What does this fold into?
Amino acid sequence: MARSVLIANLGARRATAGRLAALVDVFRSHGELLEVCTSGSPEEARAMAAAAVATDAPRVWVAGGDGSIHSVLPALTHASTALGVIPWGTGNILARELGIPLNWRRAVRALLRGTVRTLDAGRANGRVFCLFAGVGFDAEVVRNVSPQLKKISGRTAFIASVCVTTGRWKPFHVKLTLDGEVCDQWAWLVVVANTSAYTGVVNLPDRVRPDDGVLDTVIVRAAPKSRIIWHTAAYALLRRRLAEASRHRAREVRVETDPPVCVQVDGELCEWTPLSVAVDAGALRVVVPASGE
It folds into this structure.
């Protein structure tokens, strides 16, 4: 019988050698046949996942954050091997989207009793993602995050970056082409989303689904900073509608900006606009808790 593969990112915020040993013990106590790998880079993790797919491993378990998951996606798209998410990161956004417990011990137990769900992926300038591609403000926040502070304090690093970025960020002109239809406007940020979970604090509309064959583009229109801050806080804390935002659904999205602005994909700084995004329907198999877990 083929063994499942565990890829552990020991650079993740919650990762330690002791925790890895405890994680392996939990898997093996449940009878899971497991090959254990530790990755030192995204490229190494991707190669490990590709090797697992080549040997028909039934599962690739990734212990890390959303960046660790992002690194293995190219190897797992359109493969029979399913992805299992062990939340060791800062935001753990995919885990939140799929209802996976954020306590890693509970997550393992729930997923070993779970089922496999087929999800869409996206491709941003050819780069595979499972959560979202962000253009503008949120990508600039990612660019300004201190890696050292992120490792030590987690979300606090992002809050600090939001404060810094808000003070100097300016709206940009964007031309959006959504399944061939063009719209132009000034924007604060543009998010092309595959999931409703967005930052771990702010969610996009609940109707954003990762298995409906389309992507949801949310545009936060240009407005005075005070209004953007107020409406964003109201949305995050009170779930009021984000008044400056509009939402569009499309299978293919082209984002062109003046001036060029930076892009983040699944929370990883990617490149600069222009950006072409397309849905890759049914591309991923992911382990999720059984209904009622």
Remarks:
- Residues 4-113 form a domain with the Rossmann fold fold (CATH 3.40.50.10330).
